[in-house]
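Hey team,

Sharing the Methyltransferase-like protein 4 run so nobody has to redo it. Sequence (430 residues) first:
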Amino acid sequence: MAVVCKNEHGWVVDHKQYLDQTYCRRNTQPYEGVLTSFQFQADLFNIKCPFMMDSQFEVTQESHSHMGATGELESSVKRKRKRKRKAELNYGEVKAAEYHDQIKDQVLTAVNTLLELGKEVGYFPTEKNLQDLDNNVRARAAVKSLGETDICTEESCYHGDFPSIKDQQGIILKHNDDVTMSSIVNRPVRYPRDDPAVVSVDNDLYLLPPRCSFLLSDFSRVNLLQTSTEFPRFDMIVMDPPWQNKSVKRLKKYYSMSNEDLLDIPIPRLGTDNSLVVVWVTNRWQHIQFVKDTLFPRWSVQFLAEWHWVKVTKACEMVYTFDSPHRKPYEVLIIGSCRKPKTETNSEGIDEETVSQERATSQIPVSKVIVSIPCCIHSVKPPLQEVMKEYLPPNPHCLELFARNLTPDWTSWGNQVLKHQHKIYFDAVT
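Structure output:
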């Protein structure tokens, strides 16, 4: 179970436990499947204290060591004064500050109640152990040791003359299969068994979760999701687009795409009537407004809700100061529902399943908060299956766009769809 506890404000989610349960072998009988269980590297979730530079952490530790009996700093330690900002805020920064002020009280109330509930059930510690703080050195070392594991998958989508998906049948993988990257690009791939599997792709080992399917392709072939008979119409479509921002352009490390490209995703033809559309957005005001005012109308999607994911440490602190002007400890989920034009709707032909799904989506709360200890790998999001379950039909068909990992019972699409399935991220459990 991914959900540790919940209340009227939202959920506390254990992402690490969810992954461990996903890759745990359940079948004790001999069969063509993995013979061991796997766990996601524990240090990748070993977030003990807020994110900060080493120099800032040293000052913080020194401050703790000079705490007097009253809990206040002794005179020998002085707080550093914040440098005054010289430049005026630009329009985007002003709007971002206004947005933060609008959601602040509501999100903080939710976080505080969820953290207290997490303490009550024993998930979070009731007291902070200062001796246990290490500026997340093990988590940072774990990420650094991984290196780049997705280059071959990404480049395979852009280079080479691959056949159209219409000319290729779907492929079913099984445990210990040995395939080439070119043989799985631009074609539906499915793994149907109930236990995880290990497969070799161009001599690299990847883990497959139970009952997963995927399409490895670049954005120019996203329409293949609707032209292949291998894929159903989806009850929920989740995406974490590679949003453009200044830091991405400066680092030149992560693939990004323009907002205009996102408009071309054929959401209405991928989803069912009333299917949910969930878009992850950073806390940049421009992206939030683009989804609400431009993207959703273009896709014929009705805005329903705006939720927040708040990242916390094992010590029950947010990973950044909530009011930090530079980085926020939260990200935004914008949720909508596909709506066909009235001219395409035949009231006499609406079945009970459609009515049931429409009723479920209409009950989605306008505001909720998900609290979790984040994975320290860039752009890894918490699982949504259990959180969204009550708003979906039984056994829903779900799709993740721009996926960097596979999900049980879901279809995943992207040019990095196998990135976090590489065996280097996992430890075998005997």
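Residues 311 and 374 are 6 Å apart (CA to CA).

Ping me if you want the raw files.
A.
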